[in-house]
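Exercise 7. Given the encoded structure of a 537-residue chain, write a plausible sequence.
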């Protein structure tokens, strides 16, 4: 009876489960091997390592340390609590670990980010079940190893194993991050053909995938087909609309969500305010910000204040944005000052930028982007001494820009391009194609804008560097290997520089191609010489 009570409370109310264990001891009832798995699971629920160690002590005291079910629960508990050393010690002492034991230790290594060790154990397993496959694929996805998650899913299919909804959520999320819409569509087909349930989690993953891959129309279609939606489903769609710059639509869906009786969460407002910022809807954005606490009882967090700064700054209200930051009720962090600095770049305001820089750089001295932003603002206002100061500061602190890369999916394969990387098997043809593109867009008026290039090299080197930016190589490959009217879709890890933005607009006009570029901040839809961001990003 006590075991039943400990089991019943171990999930919903773990503390209560402990209370019944103590009452059982006080009643002079000796625990058995069925008492401890649920007691230890209660520790895992609480992620309470100290309580877990005490439970482990009780297991040893009562002589159940070699019981396989008890050992499995210990491996699971230590893995869940992040003590992989203790989990591995229990696992290595097991005489005959079963599939549950292996899966738990693999999950533990995934949790601490050691996917290599997790995969090594996965490959050594004498037998695997679907939960094990799901654990390894999810581990890759959670640790940003999206290509490896996709590869392992292919191995699973090749072995004739049918994936479940949990596996497909990890796979579809990986395609979303890679921007691989062809593979994402195939995964969606797999869901339909295998009669998997379009539950809230899987449906939301599909909405997010289509939005991140540049097809907001398909995201809306999946959303409309979902039999049930929660606030995160609505938020995923609002986030997608925000990324694509559809501010009015995002607000419309938000109103529809509220009218359906669902209460928005703080993250819903983050994306909603972001949509207003990208759409230039200053008054509406401020109205929504004020409504958070007034109408929904949500206390604004730093990211919401950051969205308002971005909203005001992008609209050119720099003095108002600076005043807003200085009067915030909570201390502004580096991203908030960074949003204001970014606005200074757009509107070329060196005076406010300098004030912001003196606060921002000491906050995050290792962040290369802020040095580069400030340097470029100085360069545009011909303050070359300040440019040199920034260069020296970066050199002294050992700060380096993160390498940029661009992904493009062609015929179901994702290609990764980096500036200066010659590893692609068709790199010579790609560079020749880019030279051809360059000649044609120059005839259309392209001159090359070196203001965002590295500021410690001369103009000729800057121009050569610009012409080998990763997205330009990806665009050249897309034009080589795809046919109109199919759009060329590219995912970039950094913000699109001004030169690449100008060049891509001209390419869309000269070659009559639609290009959809997802950068760190938003989507850019290039058509007939213009961009959906209206040069405002």
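Solution.
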């Amino acid at each position: 009876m006590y075991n039943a009570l400990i089991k019943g409370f171990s999930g919903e109310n773990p503390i209560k489960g402990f209370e019944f264990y103590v009452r059982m001891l006080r009643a002079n009832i000796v625990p058995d091997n069925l008492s401890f798995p649920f007691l230890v699971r209660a520790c895992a629920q609480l992620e309470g390592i100290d309580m877990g160690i005490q439970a482990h002590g009780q297991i040893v005291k009562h002589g159940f340390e070699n019981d396989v079910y008890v050992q499995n629960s210990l491996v699971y508990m230590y893995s869940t609590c992040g003590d992989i050393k203790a989990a591995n010690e229990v696992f290595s002492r097991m005489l005959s670990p079963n599939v549950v034991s292996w899966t738990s230790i693999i999950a533990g290594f995934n949790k601490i980010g050691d996917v290599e060790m997790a995969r090594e154990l996965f490959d050594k397993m004498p037998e695997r079940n679907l939960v094990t496959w799901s654990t390894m694929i999810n581990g890759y996805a959670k640790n940003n190893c999206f290509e490896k998650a996709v590869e392992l899913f292919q191995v699973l299919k090749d072995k004739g194993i049918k994936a479940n909804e949990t596996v497909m959520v990890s796979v579809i999320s990986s395609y979303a991050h890679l921007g691989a819409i062809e593979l994402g569509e195939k995964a969606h087909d797999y869901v339909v053909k295998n009669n998997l349930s379009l539950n809230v989690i899987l449906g939301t993953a599909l909405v997010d995938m289509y939005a991140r891959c540049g097809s907001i129309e398909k995201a809306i279609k999946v959303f409309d087909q979902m039999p049930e939606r929660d606030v995160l489903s609505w938020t995923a769609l609002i986030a997608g609309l925000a990324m694509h710059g559809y501010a009015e639509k995002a607000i419309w869906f938000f109103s529809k969500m509220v009218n359906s009786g669902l209460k928005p969460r703080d993250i819903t407002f983050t994306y909603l305010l972001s949509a207003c910022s990208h759409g230039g809807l200053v008054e509406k954005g401020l109205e929504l910000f004020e409504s958070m606490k007034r109408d929904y009882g949500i206390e604004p967090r730093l990211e919401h204040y950051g969205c308002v700064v971005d909203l005001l700054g992008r609209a050119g209200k720099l003095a108002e944005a600076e005043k807003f930051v200085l009067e915030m009720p909570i201390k502004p962090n580096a991203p908030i000052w960074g949003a204001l600095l970014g606005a200074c770049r757009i509107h070329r305001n060196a005076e406010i930028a300098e004030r912001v820089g003196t606060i921002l750089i000491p906050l995050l001295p290792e962040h290369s982007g802020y040095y580069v932003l400030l340097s470029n603002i100085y360069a545009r206002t011909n303050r070359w001494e300040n440019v040199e100061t920034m260069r020296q500061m970066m050199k002294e602190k050992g700060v380096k820009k993160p390498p940029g890369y661009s992904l493009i999916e062609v015929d179901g394969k994702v290609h990764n391009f980096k500036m200066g990387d010659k590893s692609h098997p068709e790199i010579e043809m790609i560079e020749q194609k880019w030279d051809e593109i360059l000649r044609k867009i120059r005839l259309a008026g392209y001159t090359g804008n070196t203001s965002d290039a590295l500021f410690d090299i001369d103009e000729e080197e800057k121009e050569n560097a610009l012409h080998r930016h990763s997205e330009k190589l990806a665009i050249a490959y897309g034009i080589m290997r795809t046919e109109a009217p199919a759009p060329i879709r590219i995912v970039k890890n950094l913000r699109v520089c001004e030169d690449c933005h100008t060049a891509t607009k001209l390419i869309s006009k000269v070659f009559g191609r639609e290009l959809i570029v997802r950068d760190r901040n938003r989507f850019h839809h290039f058509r007939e010489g213009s961009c959906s961001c209206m040069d405002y990003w």
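Remark. The CA atoms of residues 40 and 322 lie 52 Å apart. Students should compare their own answers with the one above.
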